[in-house]
Design brief:
This protein is of the alpha/beta class and 248 residues long. It has one domain: TIM Barrel (Alpha-Beta Barrel), CATH 3.20.20.10. It contains nine helices and eight strands. β2, α3 and β3 form a beta-alpha-beta unit. α1 crosses α2. The two termini are 23 Å apart.
């Protein structure tokens, strides 16, 4: 990896951190109230290693095959601290690919339906039974289509509230929070989407007090500051992290 790219990564991380601090402070939140996930789906292993050298430790992939490929490649790299990073699954997950991410993805952001939640829980229990070990629930987020766009997947807010009791009782998953994506190009609409997810999280907590749902995964390269202002705990940044041509 060229030295210039690694230097860019260090500068850009500092710029993003400054913007995050400002957005959090403006909304009365603490600096450690939110974390940054570097979306590595469009880059190679060299770029991921450069990001690690710049200080990133949390990454996200949207395809199970690429998640496996990157983790395997990083496991063979000299000089890479295997305990210094984690990968999440952030993209659309098909039922027949669940086994590929179990044991590899620290957190699945994209559980978009009751059917998929049941599938993840079932696979966890089956794997535990086959290995004769206690089942360790898979941490997940429920993906919600707050904006109602037909092009986006996820629970509708009403569906999530309706299914909440069953979701809470699935033994193979550990619900950690909610995830959404906002329509692009309009900050006002984005903020309404993000505030809608926060309000839904609060309604879920009231309906099911045993579910803390501490994580709100929302905000990407174009709208992460608006997301932080509305309560995001986990922003997912790809181009702004890895593309030197992206104007922050």
């Amino acid at each position: 990896m060229e030295r210039g790219y690694e230097e860019h990564m260090v500068r850009r991380r500092a710029e993003i951190a400054d913007r995050m601090r400002a957005a959090l402070a403006a909304s009365g939140r603490r600096e450690d109230d939110a974390r940054l996930l570097a979306v590595s789906k469009t880059v190679g292993v060299d770029e991921v290693v450069a990001a690690m050298h710049a200080g990133y430790g949390l990454f996200g992939e949207n395809r199970p095959q690429e998640l496996v490929r990157k983790l395997d490649a990083l496991g063979e790299r000299d000089g890479v601290d295997q305990g210094a990073y984690r990968f999440d699954m952030i993209g659309n997950l098909q039922t027949n690919k669940i086994n590929m991410v179990l044991g590899r993805a620290a957190l699945i952001h994209s559980v978009r339906s009751l059917k998929l939640a049941r599938g993840v829980s079932d696979r966890v229990l089956r794997a535990a039974a086959a290995s004769a070990v206690p089942a360790v629930p898979q941490p997940v987020l429920f993906e919600v289509n707050v904006s109602g766009e037909e092009s986006k997947s996820g629970f509708s807010p009403a569906e999530l509230l309706c299914d909440l009791e069953e979701l809470a009782g699935l033994p193979g998953i550990e619900p950690r929070g909610l995830m959404t994506m906002a329509p692009r190009g309009d900050e006002g609409t984005a903020r309404r989407t993000f505030s809608g997810l926060r309000e839904l999280r609060d309604a879920c907590r009231e309906a099911c007090p045993d579910m803390a749902l501490e994580e709100l995964s929302m905000g990407m390269s174009e709208d992460f500051e608006a997301a932080l202002m509305e309560g995001s705990t986990l922003i997912r940044l790809g181009r702004v992290v890895f593309d030197p041509a992206f104007v922050l």
